[in-house]
Amino acid sequence: MLFALLWWVIIGLIAGWAAGRIMGAGGGYGTGMDILLGMAGAVVGGFLLRLLGLYSGGGLIPSLVTAIIGAVILIWVSRRLKKA
C-alpha cells in the first residue's frame, strides 16, 4: 500500500513537471503548483481515460502518459479559471 502511494506520487511529480513544460510558462502558477496539479492529474487522467474505455492500467509508460494527459487538462482548466 505504501509503495503504491509512493509510486503514484512519483508518477504525479513527473507528470506535473512534464505537463507544465507542455503547457508553457505563460499564465501558470509555477512549477510547484504544476507538480501538485500533476499529482491530481494522475487521478483525473485515469478516471477520464477509463470512462472512455481507452485505459486498462498497468505499466510505467501507460501510467505516465495517463497522468500527463490528466495534468495537462487540470493545468489548462486552472489557467482558464485564473484568467476569469
Layout of helices and strands, plus pairs?
Layout: H1 2-23, H2 31-51, H3 60-83
Helix pairs in contact: 1-2, 1-3, 2-3
Structural summary, described in words:
The chain is globular. It has helices at 2-23, 31-51, 60-83. The protein is 80% helix and 0% strand. It has a domain at 13-18 and 31-50 and 58-84. It is mostly helical.
Helix content: over 70%
Main sheet record: none
Strand content: under 5%
SS-based class: mainly alpha
Low-confidence stretches: none
Shape: globular
The ordered H/E elements are HHH
Features:
84 residues, mainly alpha, 3 helices
Kindly summarize this structure in a few lines.
The chain is mainly α. Helices cover 80% and strands 0% of the residues.
